[in-house]
Design goal:
single chain; alpha/beta; Rossmann fold; DNA Methylase, Chain A, domain 2; 3 domains; six-stranded mixed beta sheet; two-stranded antiparallel sheet; 16 helices; 10 strands
Amino acid sequence: MIKEKGIVLESSKIHLVSDKIWKVSVFGPDNYRTALISHFLRTKNKKLRKPAIEFAVEILEGYFDEVISNKVAEEALQYLIRFDESVLFPKPANPKFTFIDLFAGIGGFRIAMQKNQGECVFSSEWDKMAQRTYYANFGEIPFGDITKVETKQWIPDNFDILCGGFPCQPFSIAGVSKKNSLGRKHGFEDEKQGNLFFHIAEILEKHRPKAFFLENVKNLVSHDKGNTFKIIRETLLDLGYSFHAKVLNGKSFVPQNRERTFMVGFDSNIFDYKETFEFPILPEPTKKVRDILESKVDAKYTLTDHLWKYLQDYSQKHKEKGNGFGFGLVDLNGTTRTMSARYYKDGSEILIPQKNKNPRRLSIRESARLQGYPDYFDVEAVSMNQGYKQFGNSVVVPLIEVIGEKIVDVLQTKIK
């Protein structure tokens, strides 16, 4: 018998394989076993105890020849998940409503809705690196692939709001352009990503939450001459929900020009078709790029001579052709272009000028600030390139918060 992290383990071999289990089994699209274990440890939900122990037995048996007892599995739960009682973004002490966090990314929706006094009762994110960052901040491993029964079966029967920034690449201007150039399908014809909206519709139909709160790119409204957006709207209306949509710009809260389509709806059977939701009137933009910059940044963020020359030559070539492609050297008293998931490649859309130096990329902390994340958000769970991808795919947190506040105002008339 050994004792690790305050947990008594009857099998002295568990600590020998724990690092391997962490690397191989904890994160990924098919991680429903470890995700459920983490949810059990975090919520202490008695309904999850039995499957959590059973899943722990399954995981451990994959690494040992000996039979793993339920007692050993239960004792090993926290050690296997590296559970920590403290968490950077805990749930509110007295929640006013519940929500689920689909296509959760690194938790932008969750931070915003928790600020509105909501409790997240289920989270799902396919990307294993985003799962790592989510876990580092919320102490909970999101379930993986939401298209699979193994994931959907753990969605609670009852919750108040379905939140989700479903994948936007099939509908974004850049995504459509790239897929066209490669001869691939886009929009709903994209078999891997474009049909994910219909899984949202399926969950709405089965669980009937009081409201939904969805986010996507600005181009969603105009994609396929408006047919894509029409299908989304009609699908949600046919399910018996009201439908409100608006394109809003995050630059009211952060120094970034970031327009996104937001969709909100309420169960018409509950609200009798009389709810009066309105999107918030956003404040005039006042944030400047210099407001988010760190006083000192690592030299690794400065562009090499080779990359800087390449970007200048590339820009000049397209200017001569009459195209607008090129790098974006920002005005520190203004706003940036929209940060994208490709920012890790060269940083070209947002470059910070430096005196007597080549320009530099944003640091990871500055990237988080550009999306409205607080400075205590953990940005070190993954590599620099992964961090750029994650913040490039993120929502603007304070914009989600003010829209969420309006949703909660409507819900309070029905939540008891």
